[in-house]
Design a protein that fits this description.
7 helices, single chain, 7-stranded parallel sheet, 16% strand, Rossmann fold, 236 residues, 44% helix, alpha/beta
Length: 236
């Protein structure tokens, strides 16, 4: 008799999976039985995560890419469709902080790069993978957001505006797909978490004073297995 895991036979895609919350989530999904596709820009870092997953008895495939470049997302979706046919879990985690600055001093080019990854790339991912998600018997889309996406904070205008737009996209997508009852779309605000982005934003903070990304990953698994409603916002 073999032990079964809750995500046996499921396919998951995690963006920004080379470190932090993305890596921890990918490892947790693999430990729960899913085959996980890992995307990020740095191949070597993705290989490290993949090795940890394989060493723990899980299954993973890496897809190094810059989500803001050309037709990389479309090609990835075509490859996934050709090999697996459908997608069960999409975790939209990749994001760029940008400079923390007064609104009047925001650099337009840098702000454009922030929106290119935090908003435009995520819309492209939804557009490319929507057909595969709809082929799943029951699929989940989970977007990692931030408190500054719903509550304005001084000097966080650029990043906060991108997360507000990201949340609006996901909430609209949730409303558009709710009638079918097969696709659940939600956002998750992880709160203060020990990540590289957190270190950039709060360089004087003691890293051990905030929770590790594995705590967030455990909550993500719990909610993916739970019965939360589409369009909801999860806060840790």
């Amino acid at each position: 008799m073999t032990d079964t895991k809750p995500f046996d036979g499921k396919l998951a895609l995690v963006t920004g999976a080379s470190r932090g919350i993305g890596a921890a989530t990918a490892e947790a999904l693999a430990a729960a039985g899913a085959h996980v596709i890992l995307t990020a820009r740095t191949a070597s870092a993705l290989e490290d995560v993949e090795e940890r997953i394989h060493a723990a008895g899980g299954a993973a495939t890496i897809a190094p890419m810059d989500l803001t470049e050309g037709d990389h997302i479309k090609k990835l979706a075509e490859a996934v469709a050709g090999r697996w046919g459908s997608l069960d879990i999409l975790v939209l985690n990749a994001a760029m902080l940008g400079s923390l600055s007064p609104v009047e001093h925001l650099d337009p080019k840098e702000l454009g790069r922030v929106f290119a990854l935090n908003v435009h790339a995520n819309q492209a991912l939804i557009g490319a993978f929507d057909p595969l998600l709809r082929r799943s018997a029951k699929a989940d889309v989970l977007g990692i957001t931030s408190s500054v996406g719903s509550e304005a904070r001084a000097f966080w205008g650029g990043y906060g505006a991108s997360k507000a737009a990201f949340e609006m996209l996901l909430n609209a997508y949730a409303d558009e797909t709710a009638h079918a009852g097969k696709l659940r779309v939600r956002t998750l605000d992880p709160g203060a978490t020990r990540t590289r982005m957190r270190q950039l934003a709060f360089p004087g903070e003691e890293p051990e004073s905030v929770k590790g990304p594995e705590v967030v990953a455990a909550v993500i698994i719990e909610h993916l297995l739970g019965d939360g409603a589409t369009g909801s916002r999860i806060t840790i």
